Amino acid sequence: MKNIIIFIIALIIPVCGSATEQIPDILIWKGDTSYIFAVPLERHSDINSLRSKLFGEKETDTHIVCGRGYMAEWSIIEDEIYLTNIFSCQYYQDSIKSDLKTLFGDKCKNGRVKADWITGDFTVPKGKILQRILFGSHFYEFEVVLTFKEGALIVYKECDNTKTRTSKFIQNQDSLNKFIYSNVDWNKVPDLKDKTIRVLITIHSGATSKADTIFVARASDNEFLTQEALRVAKLIPEWDVYYKLGEVHKQIYTLPINFNEKNRAKYSPNRTK
Fold first, then answer.
1. 209 and 156 in one domain?
2. Which of 46, 138, 217, 259 is geometrically suited to a Cys-Cys bond with 202, CB 3.0 to 4.6 A?
3. Which of 71-80, 111-120, 171-180 has the lowest mean pLDDT?
4. At which of 160, 191, 216 does a domain end?
5. Count of domains in the chain?
6. Is 238:252 a contact under the CB 8 Å cutoff?
7. Is residue 106 in a domain?
8. For residue 253, what are the CA distances in angstroms to 4, 94, 131, 138?
9. Are 140 and 218 contacting, i.e. CB atoms less than 8 angstroms apart?
10. For residues 76 and 26, what is the distance between their CA atoms, to the nearest angstrom?
11. What is the C-alpha to C-alpha distance for residues 220 and 229, in angstroms, rounded to an integer?
């Protein structure tokens, strides 16, 4: 969007130092296949040594969306998590995968390795993507939080994010402009000639479509225009609402409101038709 700056206070997940969204690992559990972005193999204490010999002497290609150099498959079996495969980034082209027995020795049993190095939480997205976030974690209908201790699943928590809503004013710049500038009291705005006076308004989203807080981030020297911008911003009937892990996920919007003769001519109710 050209005229609204959105800062999302979200969990940003740069994998392996890359800002590009990465290919996730695969989790198989109860007959269901899901994606996880936690990259559990990166938590292994010997990951640097493992990485250098993942595919033996076979040459593999990396990719900008596969910066860690592999994709892993995990399975939860009888409440324990196992590493069951490590694929090359281009597996569907080169069919290269790791030999887990060679990598892990006696720790590999029945073709899998118990991931006893894993302690902590994984978040598993479920359902539809409600909103895509550039270089960040998307918002999903549901999430499952899995808590492990030394590879054993000890806590399972389901989170409902279906209260997430997107506002037409945030998704459509033309709708936002029309609402803002059609509600300006242009009769009280002085002739600005060739000048543009900009007021920056900051909006904090909340648990509902009604904004949580709205205030002036940068005022104009003209006090009336500053207060007019604030008044109009408070009239906007809806904002985006985001939930993550079942809780409201606040966002900060910086909204520039531009007073100039071009906007007066286009949006004023008294304009010449």
1. no
2. 217
3. 171-180
4. 160
5. 2
6. no
7. yes
8. 7, 45, 16, 18
9. no
10. 11
11. 10
In this structure, are 211 and 225 located in the same domain?
yes
229 in Cβ contact with 201 (< 8 Å): yes
For 84-102, write each residue's pLDDT tens digit.
999 998 888 889 999 999 9
Q: Give the integer Cα–Cα distance in Å for 97 and 156.
A: 30
| 188 lies in the same domain as 143 | no
By residue range, what is the domain housing residue 214?
164-267
The residues, ordered by sequence, that sit 6+ positions from 30 with a Cβ below 8 Å of its Cβ are: 76
CB 203 within 8 A of CB 239: yes
Distance CA 156, CA 116 (A): 18
Q: Which residue has the higher pLDDT, 37 or 160?
A: 160
65 and 188 inside one domain: no
Residues 173 and 83 in one domain: no
- Tell whether 26 is covered by a domain: yes
Question: How does pLDDT run across 101-142, given as a tens digit for each residue?
Answer: 999 999 999 999 999 999 999 899 999 988 877 655 788 999
Q: What is this structure's pTM?
A: 0.73
174 and 85 belong to one structural domain:
no
Task: Note whether 76 and 44 are within 8 A (CB).
Answer: no
